[in-house]
Amino acid sequence: MNIKGTITLKQGRDHSVKRLHPWVFSGAIQQTTDGLKDGDWVEVQDVSKKTLGFGHYQKGTITVRIVSFGAVPPGNSVYRSKIKVAFAQRLATQVISEYTNAFRLVHGEGDGLPGLIIDIYHDVAIVQAHSAGMHLVRNLVSDAIKMALEEKGFSVSAVYYKSLAEKSESEYLLGMAGVPHIVLEHGNKFYVDWEEGQKTGFFLDQRENRKLLGEMSKDKTVLNTFCYTGGFSVYALQNQAALVHSVDASEKAVVMTRKNLTLNGFDPQVHHCVASDTFDFIKDKKDVYDVIILDPPAFAKHKDARHQAIKGYQRLNTEVMKMIRSGGIIFTFSCSQVVDRQLFYDTVVSAGIQSGRQIKVLHHLSQPADHPVSLYHSEGEYLKGLVLYVE
Ligand code: SAH
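# S-adenosyl-L-homocysteine complex -> structure
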């Protein structure tokens, strides 16, 4: 590994790195080697020149993402060894089984690889780099995935790099695989299209929450808003929901939902999938649904957008609390990293007050074991959910 320079932290601004938090903010830096380029490996030191770790440099608010803590510079094998550790954790925590072959292999900071996301869809790996450093090492990462999985008897037929920047930069780093690809999740089948779909093609983070929703759906009339590829809808139907309606603003997502219903033996002519804005759709639907899922996209991606986002969550939740049938159940989520659990809870409380209904909290939901959070990086916990009972 070629270390290109040194970042020296200000006196008193080295605590978070010493506490194994992987981000070095620009405001904490006293001195930077000249001529560094985005993605370069750098050494991070405290003011006394003690080495604290090594990471990827990138000009911006988060200037270094630390990949390796301590005084020993990592070699190129660092990706391989960390991916191996991540996979061992997925195996140990039984994320993968005869019934589930789609999982997140690497969840950025949660797996000690800031900026890197790897999702596995049966035998195809999708890699996303959220930093210049991870973009530059995508081929090393691809080789590491193949080695780590094959070592445990799993096969990897293709690795697809899905660029966040330019679609033309997306490419197969290894092999080739046709889309859509069928995966299994708790025995349910889903088509995944990583080339055209949002993010890596499927929202794996809702796996356990979908299962819980299924368990509460028997004989119920269910509305799945922001349905994307229909994950929650399929689980509701597998659990004998009476009727399921799915809504998403994206026509492509609605087409995929229809395909996924059909794939699992359900008729989209009966269980309608509608391309619509959720707010518009729910306007005239008072007392129609027993169970409603609200899983909107991140309303706030940055702190400056937080206030608007809160207003959005509040309005959405109030409207749904007002229109749901008596005895109804709401699964409400926020995946905005900048809206923490307490703030989301408080927002839902204020929505409840606005709705004027009696509401109980049945469950607090989060992200599953293949989306781990480092104990030292609480920002990694992004998915928050509540299951509410509306009297
Ligand atoms: N619940 C889904 C994931 C939801 S992702 C799952 O389990 O897979 C968020 C989805 O909201 C995206 O598909 C996006 O197209 C959709 N969306 C964004 N704004 C919307 C709006 N105003 N009304 C309806 N859908 C919207």
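# post-check
Residues 359 and 390 are 5 Å apart (CA to CA).
The chain has a mean pLDDT of 97.
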